[in-house]
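Model: Ready when you are.
Researcher: Fold this.
Model:
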Amino acid sequence: MKTLLKAAVTCVLVSTVSGVAAEDPPQQWWRGNTHTHSWWSDGDMPPELITEWYKDQGYDFLVISDHNVMQQGETWYSIDSPRRSPERVRRAYDTYLERFGETWVESREHDGELQVKLKTLDEFRGLFEEPGEFILIKGEEITDRFERHPVHMGGVNLVEVIEPQGGSSVADTIQNNLDAVVAQSEQYGQPMVVHLNHPNFHYAQTAEDFFNLDHEPGEGFFEMYNGHAGVNGHGDALHQSSERLWDIVLSKRLGELGRSVIYGVATDDAHDYTHWGGDASNPGRGWMMVRSRWLTPNEITSAVKRGDFYNSTGVQLKALEVGGQRIALEIDAEEGVEYKIEFVGTMRGADLEPKSAVVPHAHQSRTDHLHKTVSTWSRDIGQVLQVTEGASAVYRATGDELYVRARITSSKLHDNPHAEGDYEMAWTQPLVVGQAD
């Protein structure tokens, strides 16, 4: 590898000296996940096996985002009393030893328990990273709360751990943690992203928590898809889905409050790698496709901040243009699979006022103790403006829309969904529409 890199550098120097300008590489799509857990917090595998899985599945970048920690410093993990299932962790330990050997896997007996010294990111990244093929990006799930409301935020391309900032409300807690990431980004002169994770986890966030979030364009994000089976992504009869929350937030911020756009991301939130099924939080369920010339942490993060990405649970796009008052896309279609392309948006003048409803006691559950009332919203918000059957479509804005985004649903069932009956899908970022001339 060192020889190849040296040769590449030599070629660049020769071309520069000879007066031949090197051409920029073309834009391309890079597949990645920004929400993944390991033995550094509450995942059931060490980070090396997790990284190997993602790389083998064709991912280009990965963020291991453990709770309030980055993979650095000396930490010992107990195999005999782990945070997750002892049986599964023991199985992962046996696989770890078999794959990497006793020289790599440092173990000890401590207080009668078998412990493993966790490898830091700087120690194991060299086993997997390849220029233009695969990279690891530093990250953390900043795990905070307001009273009983969990507030978890995924920091991407961080330099240092960010401690939970707290706040006087859910919205204030979100704002304070966002501000901490922005401050670190400015301190180091490095692009960083932070997204609010699983807003429907315990139904701890509502759309109202995002309406007045203060941020510059390219700093507001939340998970519109999360592959964890326990975070209520589809909502229920009394709560909006995460995707519906996105439409409500976009409509209110853009149509009434004059606030900047919020981008939606798709992630795995993977914890379980040793058992598979709908009740597990498995890898490979949802991801981002980011468009960039270079596969480096800063370039990938900068592209995400520009909104130059789409989300997928299996549908791949061959071409995508979001801008110039239109969305145009072409699907990399699979033979025998049918596609429905819906353009979703909210028109100017739509009813953006909520109506409140009391949650009946009979419908309360252990994960629904945080809100006694919920807001209902007009169907004018996030309505389907155009439907195209096929592998390509164009939506031309009239200027009467606040925003438009594309949602693609295939006829192919997801092979390991977080909810039964889910199909492979994809979602673009919203086109914020200017007034027609």
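Researcher: Now this one.
Model:
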Amino acid sequence: MRYSTTALFAALASTISAQAEDWQQCGGMNWSGATACGSNAGCVKINDYYSQCQPGAAPTKPQPEPEPEQPKPTESPSTGTPAGKGPGTTLQSGYYWIRGVAAPNFHKYMQTSPLYSTGSALLGDYTKAGQFQVLDGQLVQLVSAPGEAVKLLYGVVSETRYINDNSLSVTFSETKNVHGKFAWQGDGLTWTVAGVNRPNASAWYVCAGQKLYINLGNYLYQTPAGCADQTIHYYNDIKANN
């Protein structure tokens, strides 16, 4: 079957028009426009209602990612030893809630499991939110009850790389962190260390079991299977909420 030159150009024009331009919308709830991006851009979900073509983001058909390597139990335990009764569900003076503000972890809060224990840093339900602060580069969790002597756990960053060889686990321990420093950038929680140039100091992953990992790579690019990109932010209302 032969096609005329006019028909061929019409088909090409239709294909091009079906692509969203860089930084334009390419998806979202009730979106009826173009859903494909150019060859050098990927359609990145911002929220349930808006996705955007971002140059340099993951291509429409990314290469298969390797299966995530799970942390060794000694590096990133799923459970730990209770370290205190905890401050409860009312925010104590000088501390913050820390939570995600984007899907799929919108208003999921940093905590450990069991609550107020040593173990992996997680993002979980607001009813079990921990209370945190950054002191002298240490991420600390308050685990003592009101009226008791202050007792803290420390966010410890592994020196071993895990998932996609670009992720560092974060656990809470009774001993201080010696690998890098935490800080607030605006209301976002960052981590930096000498010798590692992170593209985004506030980039995190939330992976299997809702465990938190520091993402050493690019945010929203080549995200490992089973993980979600996330930034996490302090929140200082008197109560955590969803």
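Researcher: Key takeaway?
Model: The first strand starts at residue 19 and ends at 20.
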